[in-house]
Design a protein that fits this description.
Elements: H1 4-10, E1 39-45, E2 51-64, E3 68-79, E4 90-98, E5 101-106, H2 109-115, E6 136-137, E7 140-146, E8 149-168, E9 171-185, E10 189-199, E11 203-210, E12 216-227, E13 231-232
Parallel strand pairs: 5-7
Antiparallel strand pairs: 1-2, 1-12, 2-3, 3-4, 4-5, 6-8, 7-8, 8-9, 9-10, 10-11, 11-12, 12-13
């Protein structure tokens, strides 16, 4: 059975969008949202395509470079009916990169427990800027910290399996499909298979997460994206 700590840590990878921490306007250099003020809204569905929740991620701060930098994300969460999931409703995530180490920090474990299955998985920080179908991607390794708890998450067996235009409520995006496994190691190991359509400068456009038996756990779709100077796309 998955431990409480395991369940908290397993969702942290979702917010690791530190592909590049410099931005001027709408930065499309990496497969992640890093433009300050940029805001993305996602809808989460279950295996029966029933809406479960929404969450919004906003790039609050970004500074430095891929070799040494920092990015802060503000996250807000909503129930299926659109009501706020929490009083105050905010969870802040800080990601720092330096050398070969990426570290994610978040402090409100109680809120994390409620959103553990609502945030996208995967590691955008180690996706190369130039891709081609059929190639492998190096494993992603991330240190995650929730209060005093910590662990290492690995994304392994990563392959680029398709390149196509993907239409979602937020629009049509030029995307690459990355299939991978996500391993969360604490006492034991929790493994998910993850299939994600990524667009440059956006990050996750559509994602399906499977358990170790191949059953769908979650389907996520980008509903809208807003830029600080251009408005909604």
């Amino acid at each position: 059975m998955t431990t409480t700590t395991d369940r908290i840590i397993s969702i942290m990878v979702a917010m690791l969008f530190a592909c590049s921490l410099t931005a001027a306007g709408y930065d499309r250099s990496g497969f992640c949202p890093i433009t300050p003020g940029m805001e993305l809204r996602y809808a989460n569905y279950d295996a029966d395509n029933m809406i479960q929740s929404y969450y919004v991620i906003k790039v609050a701060e970004a500074e430095g470079t891929l070799e040494k930098g920092r990015v802060v994300f503000d996250q807000t969460f909503f129930n299926a009916d659109g009501s706020a999931m929490f009083d105050g409703n905010g969870i802040e995530m800080e990601v720092t990169v330096g050398g070969e180490t990426t570290v994610s920090r978040m402090h409100d474990a109680a809120k994390v427990m409620r959103v553990q299955d609502l945030i996208s998985k995967g590691d955008a920080s180690s996706i190369p800027p130039e891709l081609s179908v059929g190639t492998d991607i190096p494993d992603g390794i991330i240190e995650v910290k929730v209060g005093r708890m910590g662990s290492t998450i690995r994304t392994i067996d990563r392959k680029i399996t398709d390149h196509d235009s993907i239409s979602v409520p937020a629009g049509t995006f030029d995307c690459w499909l990355i299939e991978e496994k996500q391993e969360t190691r604490i006492i034991g190991t929790r493994t998910n298979t993850v299939k994600t359509w990524y667009a440059k400068g956006i990050g996750c456009v559509k994602q399906t997460v499977y358990d170790k038996k191949g059953n769908i756990e979650n389907i996520q779709v980008l509903e809208s994206v807003t830029f600080p100077t251009t408005g909604r796309e």
